[in-house]
Amino acid sequence: MRKLTYFVAGTIDGFIAGPDGDYDFFSPYLTEDYLPHLTVDFPETLPTPARAALGVADAPNTHFDTVVMGRGTYEPGLAAGLTSPYAHLRQIVVSRSLGVSPDASVEVTTEDPVALVRRLKQEEGLGVWLCGGGDLAGQLLPEIDELIVKQYPVVAGSGIPLFRAEFSPRAFKLTGSRVFDNGTIALTYTKASA
User: Fold this and answer.
1) Residue 156 vs residues 19, 123, 183: alpha-carbon distances, Å
2) Phi, psi at residue 34, to the nearest 5°?
């Protein structure tokens, strides 16, 4: 069975973007000591144009072959004319308002996200990457098997939280950590056994 991994960048205080969805304040942390972690260990999490620019366009997918994201995560690329941000993956956008997909390689669905992920987990292949955002992550919290947080050394104060959900504590176990010279910490958690 495939697993769902929420692989996401965040601040010390738990925000994945600013109040208006801005995430440019994370850019200073994509430094020479940290970027190889992404290009070598998680090349499939880089947008297709970034893979080409960083010389890893042909790198094999190592963890994921499917990406699931909400409309708010998909729209910044769309606004810049990037209709297929992860062309090297199966792309699914969960949205009740987006309507018809602007790109044949991007599936837009109004399907219940939990039912969607449960169906995807039954398929053969690599893992499923939950790209964002906070609302979708909150809905999918019961289905998240692994959480990889790239915690950047910055406090936002407010914004879009890692999870937007009702109070319902879920236990995870820290299974890996890596500290980078720029202060970024990559934290890996797996769902704790019930």
Assistant:
1) 9, 38, 16
2) -100, -40
For tokens 């890692």, what's the residue? Answer: 162
Helix (H) or strand (E) holding 107: strand 106-109
Predicted TM-score (pTM) of this structure: 0.94
Q: Which structural domain range is residue 157 located in?
A: 4-8+27-166
Q: Do the beta carbons of residue 137 and residue 164 sit within 8 Å?
A: yes
How many structural domains does the chain have? 1
Determine the Cα–Cα distance for residues 29 and 9; give it in Å rounded to an integer. Answer: 11
By mean pLDDT, which of 36-40, 47-51, 90-94 is the weakest?
36-40
CATH number for the domain spanning 132: value is 3.40.430.10
Model pLDDT, residue 32: 81
Tell me whether residue 147 is exposed, middle or buried, using C-beta atoms within 10 angstroms of its C-beta: 0 to 12, 13 to 18, 19 or more: buried
CB atoms within 10 A of CB 62: 14
Nearest to 71 by CA among 40, 100, 41: 100
